[in-house]
Amino acid sequence: MPRRDEDVRLYLRDFNLGRLILQRTNAWIDTELQRLADDEPTVLHCRRSEYSGCLEFLILHQPGN
Q1: pLDDT given at position 41
Q2: Phi, psi at 6, each rounded to 5°
Q3: Alpha carbon of 52 to those of 44, 48, 56, 57: distances in Å?
Q4: What are the strands, taking DSSP E only, across the chain?
Q5: Do 26 and 39 meet the contact criterion of CB atoms below 8 Å apart?
Q6: 3-class state of residue 10 by DSSP
Q7: pLDDT value at position 6?
Q8: I need a surface site. Which of 6, 9, 33, 51 has the fewest CB within 10 A?
């Protein structure tokens, strides 16, 4: 469990239950997270992993929360 003052790594597997309920693909979720990272860069950061080449998402710590 991350500390309150740390960024949180977000994995596509975190959406497995929601993906099944909403009937959305991993590719759709991935695209929407990239869009959110573009629209709200102070909330979500997206980068390509140096090791796997897969996209990584970080929910950024919000000071005061």
Answers
A1: 92
A2: -110, 155
A3: 20, 8, 10, 14
A4: 8-10, 44-48, 55-59
A5: no
A6: strand
A7: 79
A8: 51
Cα distance between residue 18 and residue 33, in whole Å: 14
- Report the run of H or E that residue 48 belongs to, with start and end: strand 44-48
Per-residue pLDDT of the chain (65 residues; tens, 9 = 90+): 455 667 888 877 777 776 667 788 878 888 999 999 999 999 999 988 888 888 889 888 876 65
**Cut 0.85: pTM above it:** no
Look up residue 50 and give its two tokens: 């140096």
Token digits of residue 19:
């993906």
Query: Beta-carbon neighbour count of residue 15 at 10 Å?
Result: 19
